Every structure is written in structure tokens, then in C-alpha cells.
Amino acid sequence: MFDQLLNGFATALLPLNLLIALCGCLVGTLIGVLPGLGPTATLAMLIPLVFSMPPATALILLTSVYYGSMYGGSTTSILVNIPGESASVITTIDGHKMAMQGRAGPALAVAAIGSFIAGTFAVLMLTFVGAPIARYALLFGPAEFFALMVFGLCTVASLTGTNVTKSIIATCLGLMIATIGIDLVSGAARFTFGNPFLQDGVDFVVVAIGMFALTEVVITAREVHAGTRAQIVKADKVWISWSEFLYSLPAIVRGTVFGFVIGMLPGAGATLSTFIAYNLEKRLCKNPELLGTGDIRGVANPESANNAASGASLVPLLTLGLPGGGATAVMLGALMMLDITPGPLMFEKHGAIVWTLIASMYVGNTLLLLLNWPLVNVFARVMRIPPKFLMPTVLVISTIGVWSLSYSAVDLVLTGAAGVLGYYMRVHKYPVEPLILGLILGGRLEQAYRQALIISAGSNMIFVEKPISLGLLIGAALFLFLPMLLKRSKQFVAAQESAEAA
Amino acid sequence: MDIAARGLLRTRIEGLVILLVAGGYLWETFNIPDFYQLPDTPGPKTFPELLGLVFAVMGLWLLISPSDIMARIRAKRDGTAAAVAAEPSAAAPSGGLLARIGLDWHFVALWAVVLAYLWFMPDLGFPVATFLLLVLFTRLLGEPRWHVLIGLALAVTIVVYVGFKYGLNVRLPLGVLEFLPI
Question: Which of A461, A477, B8, B175 has its CA 20 to 30 Å from the CA of residue A455?
Fold first, then answer.
């Protein structure tokens, strides 16, 4: 394993890959800093670019952007009181108060250190846990994979959004869109309405760009019109004293561990993990009454949790092929387009790529720490670019992204339709992530379903007779009913509200 | 019509639309050709039929769900007075047809510009369409100075066109500018 990891480092440290990682970290941080534009939309926009790259390089770019955006979110939370993306909502509570008290420097420093520790921990865990999980998952047959994907879809449906019915509707719609096109088994055209452009199916990039990038542009445009601008606090010196570091270290450790554990679960994602970690921190730490008044632990804890969780979400993605949310779903789609199917076989078949990716995450973490420390004030200044100049450009670049996929006007029309639908869904609280997830997993879900039924000669009992599959299906059902139980918990309601507000 | 009742009505309409889509989807599964298929194995129709059924059940649930009614009634009892005071326009829509269905001209204009861009870009050509989009969209976002608008739109169009065409080898349509030797 270690020689594989060393080989990975050798590839990750190639000048081109290092440069790509650096660019990815920079772009990611900028995306994280800019409110409105989230990691999912950015990843979707980047996919057309990564086609021309070698798979390892493409993966490095995507993960470093994903990582960087998690990192950058804290800067705006602390300095402007606007979370750059939803996972940084909790950081604003203590972070902005610290900035107002003139302690922006330590807040930014602890966010950077906490993120670094958490990120490194997550990669370490991925290094040691990834291959064994993948080896275990090799025992899975089609029935188990079907159950696993149903489990993933159900946890995502249950944990994103406020209403399980609406989440199931979104998931189902995604799966239905995935059935459009030529059926790979029989060659029958399905739902194409005789349109040759639909025979290849609807590309998920088209829907993802429509639903994330386009709607974000319009939603931001609406906010600009309504007139919400914020005051930016300037950080003088990004530094942290030794005693402050020791004071926040337990919070970092707890945030890291909880964030990682929660982040492994599909659907929980970085946002929910920050909230749960922060609330646990309130119960576990000394002097909990200080949290919320500008306490440095209130920055250290959620920032570590969100970085640990985003690292953790790569574990099910790489070992089981199960994405946990919008951003990882887009990454899965990108991998499939590069002809790499994440899953248990990935460690065997594409071992070099996986280990390069893991090595590049170590590199990326270090790069982010080195980048963010001196450049925090530069990033904060990016916030001042008025959205009225930025948003139209985002629109143009997303359009090019869709156009460059297959140079088809039909794709552009579908993007527009997805944008309008996505806008309606967002405004009326239908979560968009489950739809994208359904769209991406749909093909493999159906394939697993049909293979399982071929094995069982048409009997659906196969899903119940195999213990792993039965367990996963029961787990899936439990998750669907979970929100009903959790609704009684005030913390959960607050978590959902904060997730929704972002 | 107050907010609670309006929200309820919207849920019902959404349920109806979902039911109709599910119906259309299931209807379309009949048009999937049956090619040779092993006996006792699911064909290309099985999975879509399953999905259509789940979708239809969900739509039906939105249409008739009782818990939803309870929530709405509760919201009505607790919050209507405050909500109406805060949003008088929502309670008693005034203005034109757009305002009555909860839209305003700015919203419609934003979407119209975006969709028109996606629709006309391949024919009109990337440079012209993008220039127009940038001018109109930035104007809608509240930039009043025309020299800034036109200068910025021109600059972004050129930078993006050159960057993607020569930097990343993306074929972008020239459209009406086809005669130019670029």
C-alpha cells in the first residue's frame, strides 16, 4: 500500500499536476469566497474542460476545487457574515463576532489550521479505510448494489430538504430523466419521441448546469435587485497565539472526528455535519456558555467538521461509487464520462489513479494552508467584485460548458428547461441534489436491478433473501421515516433551517 | 385568498401536475418496442413502469395528503394575521396580471433574456448573442452607465471567445459574423 501511495505522490508532484492542483485550489477558494456560486455548479461547469485531460489530472482538478471551496467559505463567514457556501453557516455565529471584536486574524488562522488538520485526517482515513471497504464491497452482487444505491438515494432524500415527499419526487424525476435514451440491454429507444438527439439520453451536465449554475445566476440577480450588500471587515494580521491554539485544539479534534463520521453517510454532507458537530461541542466542551459570543472554538469546530466531512464523502464515492450529495454526484458523473466507474473495482482497476488522487489531496491540503495564510485579504477583496458584473459572465461560461459537450442546440434548450424547473424547485423547497443524484445513478440502478432479476429468474425476493441487501433496504426505509422522528428535535429543525437559508 | 390557502392550492396543483407527468410517462412506456427478451427477466419497460408508479403515488399523496392540510390549517390559525400585515401585496394582489400570479417584470425579463440567449445563440452566433446578453443582463442587474455596459460586454465577449476558441479548442459558432476571417 505504501509503495502505491508513494507512486501516487510521484504522479501528484509532477509539475503539471501540481500546477493543476494549485489552480484548482485557487479557483475553489474563490468560489468558496463568492456567495451564490457553489461547488456543485462550479464542478459541473468544469466538466467539459476536463475531457481533454488525463484522468488523474482531471480528478486532481475536480477534488482540489471541491476542497478549496470548502476552505474558502470560512473567509467570508468571518469577515462579512455571509457564508460563502452552506457548510460555513455555523462559522458565522462565532466567526463574525470575533471579527467585530477585532480578532479576525486569529479566527481566520484557526479556520485554516482546523481545516488543515481535519483535511489531513480525512485523507489519512481514506488512505487506510478505502481499500479494505472496497475489498469488502467486492462481495457485493447486483442485488446488493441495487440495495446500496437505493439506500444512498433514500438517505439523500431524507437528509436534504425539508419534506421527504418532495425529496422522493425529486429523486424519482431524476431517475425518470435517466431512462430517456436507448436502452443499453435491448437497444430499444425509450422516451425519445423520435428525436435523434435524445437517443443518447440527457446528459447530466446539461441538467446540473441548468439547475445549479443557471438558477444561482438568476437567484443572485434577484438578490442584487432587492439590494443586499454587506460590510467587509478587514483582517490585520492572520496569526494565532500558542495558548489560543491549545485552547481550540480539543474543539478541532472533536469537530474532525464527528465531521468525518457524519460525512461518510450519504446525504448528510458537510452542512449537516457542521451543525451536529457544533451542537455536540456545546454539550462536551468546558464553558459552553462562551460559544456564540465570539469564542475561537466556535470557529475551529465547524470549520474542522466541514473539511473532515468533505473528505469523508469521498470514501463512499471512491469505494462504493455512492455519491453523498450534489458536488460528489457531479464528480461521479465526471468520472463515468472519463470511463472510470468508481466502485469496489476502482482500487484494483484504476489503482494508480486512486492513489494519485489520495496523494494529491495531501498536497492540496498543504497548498491550501500555504495559499490561504498570506492571501486571505486578497480573497476577501474578491467579495467586492459586484455580482452584476460577475453573474452574466458565469452565465456565458456555463453556456459554453453545455455547448462544448456535443455542440447541440437541443442541449442548450434542455439546460434552459432545467434552469426554469430548478428555479421553481428551489423556490418551492424541492431539493435539487436528489434529482441530480437520481439522474447520475439511474442507469446503474436499473442495470443492477435487471441483473439481479436475471440471476433470480424474475423473482423480486432476491433483494430480501440476501442479508446485506435486506439490511440496506431496511436502513433505507428507516431513513425515509427519520425526519418524522427528528422533527421533534429542535436542533434538527434549526439545522434544516440554516441549511435551507444558505 | 390568504397565504395558507394559496400554498395549499399550489401543493394541490403540483400534485396534479406530477400525476399528469407520471401518467404521460407511463403511457409512453407502452411505446417502448419489445425486442427479443429472455423469458422471466425484466425488459426495457419494467424499471420505467416502477418509477412511473412511484412518481404517480407521490403526486397523488401531494394531492390528497391530510397531514399537509393540518399543517396549513395550523399555519393559518397562528400566522395569517402577521403574514398578511407583513405582505399586504400577497394577500390582496394589486397591479397587472403578472403581479396577481406572483411575478414581476424584472423576474420575467431576467428569464426571458437567459432563455432567449440559450435559444438564439447557435444561430445568431456566439459573439453577437453574448454581447447582447451581457449588455441586457448587466443592465437588468442595475448598471445604468451605457459606456460601462458596452465596454465591459465587448471586453468579456472577446476575452471569453478568444480564450475558449484558441486556449481550450472549443468550437464556438460565429453565426451572423461568419463572413469575418476570425
Answer: A477
Burial of A36 (0-12, 13-18, 19+ CB in 10 A): buried
| Residues, chain B | 182
From first CA to last CA, the distance across chain A in angstroms is 40
Confidence of residue B114 (pLDDT cuts 50, 70, 90): very high
Q: How far is B62 from chain A (nearest CA, A)?
A: 8
For residue A199, which phi and psi values (nearest 5 degrees)? -65, -30
Q: Which of B17, B104, B114, B169 to mutate to test the interface with A (most CBs of A within 10 A)?
A: B114
pLDDT at A353 over 50: yes
What does DSSP assign to residue A88?
G
Q: Could you say which of B58, B169, B172 has the minimum Cβ distance to residue A169?
A: B58
Contacts of B111 in chain A (CB under 8 A): 218, 420, 423
A493 has a pLDDT exceeding 70:
no
Count residue pairs from A and B with Cβ separation < 8 A: 155
Q: Where are the domains positioned within chain A?
A: 2-501
Its pTM stands at 0.82
For residue A229, the distance in angstroms to the closest alpha carbon of chain B comes to 13
Cell numbers found for residue A245: 491554539
Q: Do B141 and A403 touch (CB under 8 A)?
A: no
Please answer yes or no on whether A221 and B141 come within 8 Å at the CB atom: yes
Q: What pLDDT score does A242 carry?
A: 83
Q: Report how many helices (DSSP H) and strands (DSSP E) chain A contains, helices first.
A: 23, 2
